[in-house]
Amino acid sequence: MSQSTSQMATIKHHLAAEGCEWNSIHHTPPFRGLWKTAVNSMKYHLLRTRGSHVATYGELCTLLSEIDVCLNSRILCALSDNPSNPTYLSLGHFHIGEPITQLPAIDVTNVKINRLSRWQMYQQQVQQFWQCWSTDYLQSTNNGIHG
């Protein structure tokens, strides 16, 4: 038995003792399909957002981290019916135990590139990614509900 197989067996045993059932993504094809769809969606929108911009390794890592925050902050379901206190469950809850939040940034999506600093160009790419991805995500969710 390999080390990773033995570690997985240990994790499964511990979770079973706690009353949890562990299902790995490798053993659940429907979830693997959802994961692959999310990755492909991210790649598609990243390529559209990046365009021909050349980024340093650090800039690309930071951009991907910001995109990760965008994707992991999407709403999975509502936790409250109270309109004055709308709480929700997101993937961020599974990572850090609460919603992932970002500091507000100045909207630079419609500013011409030659007027932006390097940091603002980066912010523009993050904002454009969010606009494209969230629109696509909301339309797919809406089609799934009504389609």
Describe the protein.
By secondary structure, the protein is mostly helical. Helix content is 60%, strand content 5%. The protein has a two-stranded antiparallel sheet with strand order 1-2. Helix 2 (29-50) crosses helix 5 (118-146) and helix 3 packs parallel to helix 5 (118-146). The mean pLDDT is 76.
Structural class: mainly alpha
Apparent shape = globular
Write the element-wise H/E pattern from the N-terminal end onward.
HHHEEHH
Q: Write down the Rg.
A: 19 Å
Unreliable stretches (pLDDT < 50, length at least 5) are none
Largest sheet: 2 strands, antiparallel
Q: How many individual helices?
A: 5
Question: What labels would you give this structure?
Answer:
single chain, 147 residues, mainly alpha, two-stranded antiparallel sheet, 5 helices, 60% helix, globular
How is the secondary structure organized here?
Elements: H1 3-17, H2 29-50, H3 57-72, E1 75-78, E2 88-90, H4 91-96, H5 118-146
Antiparallel strand pairs: 1-2
Summarize the structure.
By secondary structure, this protein is mainly alpha-helical.
